[in-house]
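Our collaborator T.R. sent over the components below with a one-line note: 'Predict the complex.' Nothing else. No constraints on interfaces, no templates requested, no preferences about which chain binds where. So this is a plain run: every listed entity goes in together, and whatever single assembly comes back becomes the starting point for the next discussion.
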Amino acid sequence: MPNKGPGVFEEEIEKIEDALGITTVEKAVAWAQANSMWPDTFGLACCAIEMMSIVSSRYDISRFGMERFSSSPRQADLLIVSGRVTHKMAAPLRQVYDQMLEPKWVIAMGACASSGGMFNNYTVLQGVDKIVPVDVHVPGCPPRPEALMEGIIRLHEKIKAGLPPAYQIRGVAQ
Ligand code: SF4
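Returned assembly:
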C-alpha cells in the first residue's frame, strides 16, 4: 500500500513553518474557522437528545470554541442534522441551510439523517444529502455524543487541511 501522506519535502516545510511561527493567510483563516464554529441545531428526533448532551460539562464542546449553539441560521456556520427528515421537513431544512452565510458545513448525525435508517417508507427522506451537501456523516442509531464529537473533530481537520466545504465540490438535487 503506497504511502499517501505528505512527502518528505512537505514535512520539512511544515517543520520550518512551525519552528519559525509563520503561516499563510489561508491557513490562519482555516484555523480560525475551525476553532470558532457556531452550530445551528436541527434536532428532529431521538438523535437530537445525544446531540444536546455535547454542550454538557461531561463533553464540553466549548473546548473547541463551539459553546454557542445558534437558533438563527444567519449566525451559524455548521448545521447538525440529527434525526430523520420527513419530506414535509425537507423544504424548511433547505431554507435554513440557504439562510446560513458561507462558508458553511453540514453534519448528518445518525442513520436516519444519513440514509433514512430503518424508515424506508414514503414519508421519510432517504438521506439528507439529497437536499443539502453533507461534509461528514456520523454513523449510529443513535450515535453516542463521543461519535458526534469525533465527526466534529474530523470536520475541523478537513477545514485545517484546506479542503473546501461540500457545497463547493458537489451539487445536490434542487
Ligand atoms: S438514527 Fe436511530 S436514534 Fe437517530 S433518529 Fe434515527 S431511529 Fe432515532
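Summary for T.R.: The longest helix spans residues 145-160.
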